[in-house]
Structure formats: C-alpha cells, structure tokens
Design goal:
- By secondary structure, the chain is an alpha+beta fold.
- It has 3 domains: about 70 residues, Uridine Diphospho-n-acetylenolpyruvylglucosamine Reductase, domain 2; about 150 residues, Uridine Diphospho-n-acetylenolpyruvylglucosamine Reductase, domain 3 (2-Layer Sandwich), CATH 3.30.465; about 100 residues, UDP-N-acetylenolpyruvoylglucosamine reductase, C-terminal domain (Uridine Diphospho-n-acetylenolpyruvylglucosamine Reductase, domain 1), CATH 3.90.78.10.
- Helices cover about 25% and strands about 30% of the residues.
- The strands form 6 sheets. Strands 6, 7, 8, 11, 12 and 13 form a 6-stranded antiparallel beta sheet that branches. Strands 1-2-5-3 form a 4-stranded mixed beta sheet, with no helix packed on it.
- This is UDP-N-acetylmuramate dehydrogenase.
- InterPro entries: FAD-bd_PCMH, FAD-bd_PCMH-like_sf, FAD-bd_PCMH_sub1, FAD-bd_PCMH_sub2, MurB, MurB_C, MurB_C_sf, Oxid_FAD_bind_N.
- It catalyses: UDP-N-acetyl-alpha-D-muramate + NADP(+) = UDP-N-acetyl-3-O-(1-carboxyvinyl)-alpha-D-glucosamine + NADPH + H(+).
Amino acid sequence: MSSFRWEENVSLQRYNTFNIPVTTRYLVRVQNAGLSKLVQSPLFQGHRHVVLGGGSNLLFTGKTYDGIVLKNEILGIETLSRDDLHTTLKVGGGVAWSSLVGYCLTHSLGGIENLSLIPGTVGAAPIQNIGAYGMELSDVLERVEIVDLTDGRTRTMTRAECMFGYRDSVFKRLKDVLVSTVTIKLTNAPHHRLHTAYGSIQQVLSEQGIHTPTISSVSEAISLLRRHKLPDPRELGNAGSFFQNVTIDEETCTSLKTKYAALPVFTKADGRRLVPAAWFIENCGWKGRRIGQVGVYANHALIIVNFGEAEGDEVKAISDRIIEDVNRQFGVRLVPEVNIVR
C-alpha cells in the first residue's frame, strides 16, 4: 500500500490555524514512514518542502508556496508495555495532540495532563518541546522515530539525542526530518504525582471545590484557564503563543529588576530564569492593539490574531514591529515560537 499520495495546487487555508489564504504547488499526505521512493523522486528533489502537522505553529508569509507540503497523517496509539507503575505508548506523528491527551485521561495515565488543549499533532510536539503549566514533553518522552527527508531512511532517537531545551530540540537544526512516531512513558494514576503549583491551577481547583485533584480534574482546570486566555482558532485565526518566553541570565535579570520592579521572573529547576514575553509586549502597549486585519489579542499579549482577512506578510510585519519595540525599550529580543515559512 502506498505510504503517500500527491495533490496539486491545494489551498492550505483550512490546514493552518492562522486561517491564512495560501496555496501550495503540491501536497503529499504521508500515512506511514515508507518514504524512500518519494524523497528520491526527481519531483521531490527539485522542490523545497515543509512538514505540516496540525498547522497550529506555522505562518506562511506568501500567497503561494512553490514547493511540497508533507502533511503528516501517520496515526495509531499502541501500548508497548505496562506494569504497576508505568505505561509506555507509541503514538503516530499525525495523531492530534488533544486526542492523545484524551486517550491518557480515559486510561488514567498521568504525565501530559498539564499539556491539555495544546493544538497541533504529536509529530510536531518534540520539535519545540511543547510545554505548559510547569511541564514539558521531554519530561515523559522516551524516544522518537524520524524519517530523514534527504534519503528516506528511518532512525530512532533517544531523549538525550533529541537535545531538548526550553521550546527547543535538535530538530530545529535537523530541519529535514519528519517525526513518524513518538514514544512516551506515563505514570499509572494511583502512583502519579500531580503538578498543580504553576500559575492559577490551584485557584481554579479551589473555586471548583476540588481539594483532592485527579489527573482529569487538573486537565479540566488547565483547559478552563487556556480557554479563558486563548482565542479559539475556529473563530479567530491564531497560532497560539507567537513568541517564546524570554530566558535571561542573572546579570540581565538584576538590571531589569532594578528598572522594573514588577518584572515577573520564574526560576526553573535547572536554574533558568524565564520572563513571560507577554509582559514585555503588554508593557510596550501592544496588548489589544489592532492594525488592519491583524492585532494582539486583548486577553493575552502573546497571541497575534487574524481578524478575518489578513495575509501572512501582514502578520509577519506586526510581529517584526513588536520585536523592534520590545528590543528598543527593554534591550531584549523576542524569538518567534511560530515557524515562519516564506
């Protein structure tokens, strides 16, 4: 059975959560890891290409993409092992992340409940080491299987080989790969230690009268928080957090704190100091600001939104202005979390 199929001149508007109108020359739907024939074909060799998952972390800046879009549609959730403490799952890269979270909740498996309501696919998750509310994918990931798009060969990479960091991994440098499967090790409910100290999780649980939280109740609390802060891309085009939070050293932290006493700083377990990018953006006056069909969401300064008719270059122009303003005022340079495809 063929592992892929070609389509020509395909609109990607419904495949990107920014709802940007863009047409790709070719679209290839990838349904398993057997891609040697594809990547060795003259057509593939003669065009640039980009991998598309759920389209939730991608911004096309042109009206057309004169290349090949590989849409990862590799499905399946397989239990590799289970004992009293842990369950290990192997998950297809095309599985929606929300579907995997739902599967884990149904089967009382802990480890990714804090990553509830994050859009996108499983295959995209390791690339930027998705994280939220004090947890990251790297906390549970065991290994990934990738397809090298230069020759079609498959390879297994361990957690250490992935070189995970804050919203970072080796895959941001090994750009020419497709993640076919991700293997994660989860904790069975009776033994799982919940992480509820970050943000307003405890407050939401208390307001709901929950004093002994479960994996599901933590997931529901986080989903509630995210729905309040983040716009639904089906109603207002966006790609979630447009910028990474800012990692600063001790000297920069001290300098900024001297000037801005209200600066929020979070110290991670590994000693990293993080400042919410939203704080810088809001204090530059961008929160709730709109220019034409593009603006910064009124409820969360980290979200750039398409009010309906924007094109990709307009979104990029606003993001560039935000970067310039933050750098000019604070001496800090924001880094886009969104993958910008020109």
